Amino acid sequence: MCNFLSAIVLKNLDVIWDYKCPDNHEQLIKKYNLKGSKSNCFNEAFCKVEFSMISPQNNDLKPNDIGNWRVNLGGDVPDWFDKEIITNKLWAIISNMFVQGEKELLEKGCFILLDTALVEEVRSCRIQYMLGKSVIKNLRENSTVENMRNLSFIKTIWDNSSISSMEGNSMVGNMRDYSKIKNIRNYSIINSLYKYTTIENLYENSTVGNMYEYSLIKNIWNNSKVFTMLDNSVIHHLWDNSEIKNMEDNSMIVNMHNNSKIYNMRKDFKVKNDYRPK
Questions:
Q1: 154 lies in the same domain as 263
Q2: Containing domain of residue 248, as a range?
Q3: CB count in 10 Å sphere of residue 121
Q4: Splitting the chain (278 residues) into consecutive groups of 10 residues, what average pLDDT does each group show?
Q5: Judgement on whether residues 83 and 14 belong to the same structural domain of the protein
Q6: What is the H or E stretch that residue 83 is in?
Q7: What is the pTM of this model?
Q8: Is the N end or the C end of the chain the one with fewer CB atoms within 10 Å?
Q9: In a domain, 195, yes or no
Q10: Is the dihedral angle over the CA atoms 53, 57, 59, 63 positive or is it negative?
Q11: H-helix or E-strand containing 31?
Q12: Residue finishing a domain among 95, 117, 135
């Protein structure tokens, strides 16, 4: 896997990219049937480029400034490559992703939500960044949010949609219908998990309100909390002073480690392996 934004530059300086694979050169090469001599970065017909945002020390990303983006070839530069022209073409692609203000619908595209963005519904999209106080009310139809930061908010996630990373007090209201979050950090909050939804890792004082209907959290770390587990919900590992307030209705924790705690246990709850110090 490459980095966002991944693109192919042809010898005539045309730029090829695709919103469905904005961080994968090999998928672009296959999709457009590009051929040439084997090389890690370029050949006589085309070269691979990445247009990446610089991460400031204070983590305050400002994607709408071209000065915060860099072109990277990851190797030797072909003689025909013109960095200024390609930078401007890649910036034009990025600029078309910016969303500000109120939008009724985003559909089948790649977007960056800036501070004022308020989107009623997102369908079949890739949201590369949600920044500031940006809001999505409904995330649907296998949409993906790669990075939620600052005070960004998603009201409800549906239809196998997913979030790769939540950081910095970002918040999700409800997760439904097999939706998935990979990593939650920095005081982020999930209100409720329903219907086979999954969180892989809950870190750094993050919180889940309620787990329902076979929902799953694989790992809870760093003083994070789950308030209530219901309806056959499962946590695989509870680490590092993390807490469960209430367990009910056949909910289960597979492994408890370190100084993790459960406060109220009712009905047919289960802790399979307790590795905490006695």
A1: yes
A2: 99-274
A3: 18
A4: 86 94 90 67 77 75 90 83 95 97 97 96 96 96 93 94 92 93 91 92 91 92 91 91 89 90 77 78
A5: yes
A6: helix 83-95
A7: 0.89
A8: C
A9: yes
A10: negative
A11: helix 25-31
A12: 95
